[in-house]
Amino acid sequence: MQAVTWQGRKDIRVEEVPDARIEEPTDAVIRVTSTGLCGSDLHLYDPLTPFMTPGDIVGHEPMGVVEAVGAQVSALSVGDRVVVPFNISCGSCWMCERRLYSQCETTQNRETGTGASLFGYSSLYGAVPGGQAELLRVPFADFLPVKVPHGPPDDRFVYLSDVLPTAWQGVEYAAIPEGGTLLVLGAGPIGDMATRIALHRGIRVIVVDRVPERLARVSARGAEILDLGEIDDVAEQVRGLTGGRGADSVLEAVGMEAHGSPVAEAVQKSLRLLPKKLQQLMMTNLSVERLAALYLAFEAVRRGGTVSISGVYGGTSDPMPMMQLFDKQLQLRMGQANVRAWTDELLALLQQDEDHLGVEGFATHHLPLDAAPQAYASFQAKEDGMVKVLFRP
Ligand code: NAD
Ligand code: ZN
Ligand code: ZN
Questions:
Q1: Ligand 1 atom closest to residue 258's alpha carbon, by position in its atom list
Q2: Is a pLDDT exceeding 60 seen at residue 288?
Q3: Which domain holds residue 283?
Q4: CA of 94 to the centre of ligand 3 (A)
Q5: 190 CA distance to ligand 3 middle (Å)
Q6: 117, 155, 229, 379: which could join 126 in a potential S-S bond, CB 3.0 to 4.6 Å?
């Protein structure tokens, strides 16, 4: 089968690899029909490279049609149409019972001290072959895949794999009070979808980014926008728009590659010169992240407000402004999305005739799998009007 593979820093190649197949009686194999490119994939493309091995199959936002099922699978049949959540959760352990699916104790990675395994997401998360491929092995087939009806286009459902539940959880965790304002940092796919979800709930939303076409998309849906490239003091602007106090809630959808943190960016780059083992140690034990967006979140949230972090971070000793966090009496929530916790509610919304969140027009690019090398480069550079790519293997 064809698959998108990681070969080195900024080196993505489409290769012929052995077909995915049933390995456990509880597995299914799906033929992938659409599979997304995510901002999280960009972290593997560059700063998280020490945790990758050449040949790793990447991608974690797939949907498709069931091609084969293991002997113990009863809830799925060949020909069913499914979306596959990015975190691999068993559905029956202590954490899954509490709907904390991104912490599943059956697939947790105790050696690396990380949560549930993820499709296509480095040795930190189980080194499981990913979903940017023609075929994908799906464990826990009776629980994990989300069955969707045949008929509507893939674009209606594919974002159940990651973008929708991540954005939904981000908005839930932001705990926006009645009549309150949500500030969204980052207008990539996650910030954009979170904005749509909040607007759909009747919430006032202000979005910050510096890529004009991304700001234009959220503006067209009714958000107020602030261009990072044109404003010196964004937090001050936000206070000006919110009665002098700041936003009731902030949703951070940027992550460790934020613009505006030159020192950390230099550290991230200098790490590349070290041997792989040492790079891994430095990445996980030092402050190598670009925290500009996170600091802006703490600045721009009002006293007593909530900060919800969807962006991915990976250091263990980042400098945190503890005095500000404490003094402003902030509430913080974060984490990988517990995908399966939100999919029932989301699927019900997606099955209505009206496309409330505009999912069918959300992708800016539909590309064949072999366009992946160029797509990764363009998506990272934010060129070509690229906001969301769906590959069609
Ligand atoms: P993306 O890289 O396309 O979007 C990030 C956006 O932030 C870009 O538009 C960029 O211009 C903007 N930005 C950069 N610096 C900024 C700053 N200082 N202030 C405001 N905006 C800034 O990626 P995406 O797919 O939207 O993902 C966003 C983040 O969410 C990534 O870190 C990704 O790893 C993470 N993510 C988390 C989960 C989860 O489960 N928590 C799931 C998916 C993605
Ligand atoms: Zn993703
Ligand atoms: Zn579990």
A1: 15
A2: no
A3: 164-334
A4: 7
A5: 25
A6: 117
pLDDT of residue 332: 97
State pLDDT tens for residues 97-125: 999 999 999 999 999 889 999 999 999 99
Strands 389-392, 2-8: pairing kind: unpaired
Q: Which ligand is nearest to the CA of 364?
A: 1
Q: Do 306 and 225 share a structural domain? A: yes
Residue 240 has pLDDT above 60, yes or no: yes
Alpha-helical runs (H) found in the chain: 39-45, 94-97, 154-157, 163-174, 189-200, 212-220, 234-241, 262-271, 276-285, 292-300, 322-327, 339-350, 372-381
284 lies in the same domain as 180: yes
The model carries a pTM of 0.94
Ligand 1: atom nearest CA of 208 is 20
Are 297 and 207 members of one domain?
Answer: yes
* Ligand 1 pocket: which of 312, 334, 390 to mutate (most atoms within 8 A of CB): 312
Q: Does 178 have pLDDT greater than 90?
A: yes
Q: List the residue whose alpha carbon is closest to atom 34 of ligand 1.
A: 40
Of all residues in the chain, the percent with pLDDT exceeding 90 is: 85
